[in-house]
Specification:
About 40% of the residues are buried. The radius of gyration is 19 Å and the shape is globular. The strands form 4 sheets. It has a 6-stranded mixed β-sheet with strand order 2-1-4-6-7-12, with helices on both faces. The two termini are about 20 Å apart. Helix 1 packs across helix 4. It is an alpha/beta fold and about 260 residues long. It folds into 2 domains: about 180 residues, Rossmann fold (3-Layer(aba) Sandwich), CATH 3.40.50; about 55 residues, Alpha-Beta Plaits (2-Layer Sandwich).
Length: about 260
């Protein structure tokens, strides 16, 4: 391997941290990063057949985010090896890893390894912590361990044609995507808000604009909570019966720590 590509969709930064740590552990250079968390990254990308690519996407209710899928489909390879990673908030990744494998394979990559890692849940708050602070130090150690295993597998291969079909968990047909209520989106505390625009830049779907006040296009909002996590004034928040009930359910069902899983 003569180069390393890192591709990730990471509105809140957790998937980015995981992918970068795996990339660092692989010890390959040069490293080219493709952050597809913004609509500004909707260009076609030809990666050919050289180097290794690590691709990380978060899990939304057991599936991949639609916007991430559409942006990922703009990458094209010619049987180049790839490692795929699904990040989830300590509940379950369900069909996301299998879905990611199918999409990446259709883009022309040869998936040689896969993993699931845990990141802080988008709905996590101080009073209802959901995998708070993850990936943590133990997770980063696991990232390094996974990278070593991937490197060992690559070194043991004589050629790309030697790689057998990688099996990952998941079910066909994929579970139905959760339909978001378009009447719900994060709100703004206008007393705290100073209109700095950080939430606008953080939103992966361009759902937020600032004129005289902060306006959220509810049809574009994916409930990723990037605006909430990134606001330095704590002016963005979710206070809705549906979201609050979901937080309570997750808090009661997902308290036990889940660990990363590797598939090589």
């Amino acid at each position: 391997m003569d180069a390393l590509n890192l591709i990730y969709y990471s509105p809140t930064g957790t998937t980015q941290t995981i992918v970068r740590e795996i990339g660092h552990g692989l010890g390959l250079s040069p490293i080219v990063e493709y952050n597809i968390s913004s609509t500004k990254t909707d260009s076609e990308n030809e990666l050919g057949n050289k180097g290794l690519t690590v691709i990380g996407i978060p899990t939304y209710s057991g599936r991949l985010p639609v916007d991430a899928v559409e942006r990922l489909k703009k990458f094209h390879a010619n049987n180049a090896p790839a490692v795929i990673v699904a990040a989830y908030g300590n509940r379950a990744f369900e069909d996301a890893l299998l879905e990611l494998k199918e999409i990446v394979s259709n883009c022309g990559f040869n998936v040689i390894a896969a993993a699931s890692f845990i990141g802080e849940h988008s709905y996590s708050t101080v009073d209802k912590p959901l995998s708070q602070g993850r990936p943590d130090k133990l997770d980063l150690i696991q990232c390094a361990d996974f990278a070593r295993r991937v490197h060992s597998k690559i070194m043991g291969l004589k050629g790309k044609n030697e790689v057998s079909e990688l099996e990952v968990p998941g079910n066909y047909p994929y579970k139905e995507r959760k339909q978001l209520d378009e009447a719900i989106s994060p709100e703004t505390d206008f007393v705290k808000c100073n209109k700095c625009g950080i939430c606008v830049d953080a939103c992966p779907t361009d759902a937020i604009t600032i004129n005289d006040e902060v306006i959220t296009n509810k049809e574009l909002c994916t409930w990723c909570c990037a605006c909430i996590k990134s606001c330095p004034m704590d002016a963005r928040f979710f206070d809705n019966p549906t979201i609050n009930a979901t937080k309570e359910r997750l808090y009661s069902l997902c308290a036990d720590r889940k660990e990363p899983e590797f598939f090589l």
